Q: What sequence folds into this?
């Protein structure tokens, strides 16, 4: 073992020791152990301290990971038993000693009767004793060292085993892939009926699910749907035409408020038909896209981002200011916004709204795809890659950038109107900067310029936090970590955009190709 | 012969530096004109003034008799001036055939509404430009590579793709900025023949900036030499080769006399 290798192992141990201590300090150990206990099928009351075995499993997983990481320092070397043993033991020992020191300090303080909860709300006497395995301080600390070292060594050998069997796993996987490709996947891919059946199944799910999964999930999935709409719009602006607009929420607000003011009895006593108001809201947002676009046409990159960021904030501040109080109700917001009606019947249950949002999403995906795959989509992409050259190639950049802004804004307007209608309320704080940032993040996480990416991104960003509710107050911590991991594993997004295959073969190889005929007979 | 491009006293100033100083240039239709000169002589700046990237401080640029300075580059491209770039500037993350299809942009008629509805006319136009773009790729020798991303193409292919994109504009005047930069002798030779072929097949007038003298002397009908922003000589390859000011611009003061001396000695020896 050379010095560098020892240093790396110790560093890995330090990192894992700090992680364990951090989790203990914020009380995450207790919550996660509880989750493990529930996953094992054992009941756990609220506020009850979980069992020792679930805590050991939690610590063990971290320990194994520690040993695994420490022993695999270089991708290209072949692991030997002696190397693995040394590295993982060092890593485990370092982590264990670090945790022991922490346990000793906290345990001693707790023994003296100092209430640690005054400093850290999660450090109750019970959780400290839980962390020490309900033993005395010294015994608990030593158990930590021993357990960490043993599990790290186990992790090291697991790494060794996985590497030894890597070749075999690879060949097995390849043969399975080949078999499935030959036997059924390959046949299915070429079959048009398969895609029809798939689409049918998806449609059936979209019809049935809102009826079955209850109001709560309808609410959550409705929010996801509205964010899909927003994502589709911002995807056109940022993902395709490459304009980094950070004030996208402005269009959302304009859509929501236009709809609100034209359908609510207060403050203007305009009670328009739902569908007319919806159309007007979309148009107003699209128009505002053009109006905002005109002055910022010459800005690029960072400057555009800052100016549009300011614009989003200006709209929100205007909405809550006293100047427009008579017009938009100021910070109180607009209430009693109308729900959808059709042929005199009103459709305002959660299921109806879910259907409406699903319809809007399907329609928007259809339109966004049409535009993306057309010459317009190509012109947008060209602008995003090199605006100067795109213009010199004959692309009317101003026209296309304005078009992208207004079409993208129209999607936001639709989303905003549905949002206001569903909540029957909209106020300035619904349109804060966080909306813009969330939408931008979902476009990036999903994959810039990719429509399936937008849908996946919306689920990941708005659906995942709901699934993580089990983790209570730690869900944002876990959520942030998951986002970081996602971006490390797939930096180009969950479902990156691919370019279509378009080239056609020129039939007559020998024929001289004349100057391409002028398109459309224009000179 | 008609004059395709005429530059009159074109002057471009950056701060205190006169990058292009009162340059006159007349390019007849169907010719291949070269602009040469040492590094920093203002060749690319002159190109940028012609293609609308820069607005010259003084002077006029006339294309088919119409003033074009002050026009936006997309309007210039629509009028029939296409160009390539010294450092290749493709749309890197688009496929090769898509790069060419963007070049058809100034001649497209359909907009976002017809694209949304997919009217028959729109579909016909789309099919047409896919076919034409594929044909152009075939013409520049990139048949079968069209679905690769532009950034994945080899260097020489990227240069050809840039030319294909420029040809998709259906230009009357093609500006090539160092088309053989970074190529080996064989590729350079092919490119030279290809440039001539473009002129002969398509009747497009070509202006090129080039450092490789074998290419310049071989294919040019007319050569203009720039040095420190000024045009110091113009003529056919023979005249330029013998011009003492050109030799001095490239090799330094006194070089012309030396070369004259060597030539005399050679004749004397013979």
A:
């Amino acid at each position: 073992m050379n010095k560098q290798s020892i240093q790396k192992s110790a560093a890995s141990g330090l990192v894992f020791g700090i992680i364990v201590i951090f989790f203990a300090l914020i009380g995450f150990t207790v919550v996660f152990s509880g989750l493990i206990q529930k996953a094992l099928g054992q009941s756990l009351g609220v506020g009850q301290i979980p069992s020792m075995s679930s805590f050991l499993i939690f610590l063990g997983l971290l320990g194994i990971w520690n040993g695994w990481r420490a022993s695999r320092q270089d991708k290209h070397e072949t692991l030997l038993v002696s190397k693995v043993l040394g590295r993982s033991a060092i890593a485990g020992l370092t982590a264990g000693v670090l945790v022991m020191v922490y346990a000793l300090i906290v345990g001693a303080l707790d023994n003296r009767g100092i209430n640690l909860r005054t400093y850290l709300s999660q450090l109750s006497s019970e959780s400290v004793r839980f962390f020490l395995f309900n033993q005395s301080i010294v015994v608990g600390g030593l158990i930590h060292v021993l357990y960490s070292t043993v599990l790290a060594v186990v992790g090291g050998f697991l790494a060794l085993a996985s590497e030894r069997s890597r070749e075999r796993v690879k060949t097995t996987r390849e043969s399975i892939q080949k078999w499935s490709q030959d036997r059924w996947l390959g046949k299915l891919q070429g079959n048009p009926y398969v895609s029809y059946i798939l689409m049918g199944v998806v449609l059936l799910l979209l019809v049935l699910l809102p009826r079955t999964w209850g109001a709560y999930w309808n609410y959550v999935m409705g929010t996801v749907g509205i964010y899909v709409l927003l994502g589709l719009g911002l995807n056109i602006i940022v993902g395709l035409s490459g304009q980094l607009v950070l004030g996208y929420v402005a269009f959302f607000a304009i859509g929501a408020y236009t709809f609100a003011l034209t359908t609510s009895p207060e403050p203007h006593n305009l009670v328009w038909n739902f569908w007319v108001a919806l159309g007007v809201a979309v148009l107003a947002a699209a128009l505002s896209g053009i109006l905002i676009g005109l002055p910022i046409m010459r800005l690029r990159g960072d400057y555009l981002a800052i100016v549009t960021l300011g614009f989003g904030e200006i709209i929100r501040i205007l909405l809550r200011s006293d100047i427009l109080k008579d017009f938009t109700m100021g910070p109180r917001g607009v209430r009693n916004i109308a729900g959808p009606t059709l042929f005199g019947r009103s459709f305002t249950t959660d299921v109806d709204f879910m259907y409406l949002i699903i319809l809007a999403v399907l329609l928007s995906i259809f339109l966004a795809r049409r535009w993306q795959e057309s010459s317009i989509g190509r012109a947008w992409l060209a602008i995003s890659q090199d605006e100067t050259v795109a213009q010199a190639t004959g692309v009317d950049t101003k026209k296309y950038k304005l078009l992208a802004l207004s079409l993208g804004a129209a999607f936001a307007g639709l989303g905003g109107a549905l949002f206001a209608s569903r909540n029957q309320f909209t106020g300035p704080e619904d349109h804060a900067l966080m909306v813009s940032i969330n939408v931008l993040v979902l476009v990036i996480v999903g994959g810039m310029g990719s429509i399936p990416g937008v849908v996946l991104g919306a689920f990941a960003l708005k659906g995942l936090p709901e699934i993580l509710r089990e983790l209570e107050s730690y869900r944002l911590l876990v959520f942030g970590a998951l986002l970081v991991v996602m971006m490390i594993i797939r930096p180009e997004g969950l479902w990156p955009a691919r370019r279509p295959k378009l080239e056609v073969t020129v039939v007559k190889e020998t024929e001289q190709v004349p100057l391409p005929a002028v398109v459309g007979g224009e000179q | 012969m008609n004059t395709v491009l005429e530059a009159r006293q074109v002057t471009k100033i950056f701060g205190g530096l006169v990058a292009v100083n009162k340059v006159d240039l007349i390019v007849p239709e169907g010719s291949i004109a070269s602009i040469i000169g040492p590094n920093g002589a203002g060749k690319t700046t002159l190109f940028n003034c012609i293609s609308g990237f820069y607005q010259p401080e003084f002077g006029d640029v006339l294309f088919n008799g119409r003033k074009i300075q002050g026009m936006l580059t997309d309007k210039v491209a629509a009028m029939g001036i296409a160009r390539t770039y010294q450092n290749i500037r493709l749309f890197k993350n688009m496929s090769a055939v898509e790069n060419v299809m963007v070049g058809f942009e100034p001649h497209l008629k359909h907009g976002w509404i017809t694209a949304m509805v997919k009217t028959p006319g729109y579909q016909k136009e789309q099919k047409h430009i896919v076919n034409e773009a594929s044909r152009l790729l075939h013409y520049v020798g990139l048949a079968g590579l069209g679905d690769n991303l532009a950034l994945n193409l080899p260097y020489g292919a990227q240069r050809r793709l840039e030319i294909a994109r420029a040809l998709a504009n259906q230009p009357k005047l093609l500006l090539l900025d160092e088309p053989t930069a970074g190529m080996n002798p064989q590729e350079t030779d092919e490119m030279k023949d290809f440039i001539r072929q473009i002129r002969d097949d398509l009747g497009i007038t070509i202006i090129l900036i080039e450092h490789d003298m074998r290419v310049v002397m071989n294919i040019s009908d007319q050569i203009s030499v720039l040095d420190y922003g000024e045009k110091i000589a113009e003529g056919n390859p023979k005249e330029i080769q013998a011009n003492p000011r050109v030799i001095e611009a490239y090799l330094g003061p006194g070089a012309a006399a030396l070369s004259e001396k060597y030539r005399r000695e050679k004749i004397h020896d013979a």
Observations:
- Chain B has two domains: 3-80+171-269, 92-168.
- DSSP finds eleven helices and ten strands in chain B.
- The mean pLDDT of chain B is 91.
- Residues 120-139 of chain B form the longest helix (20 residues).
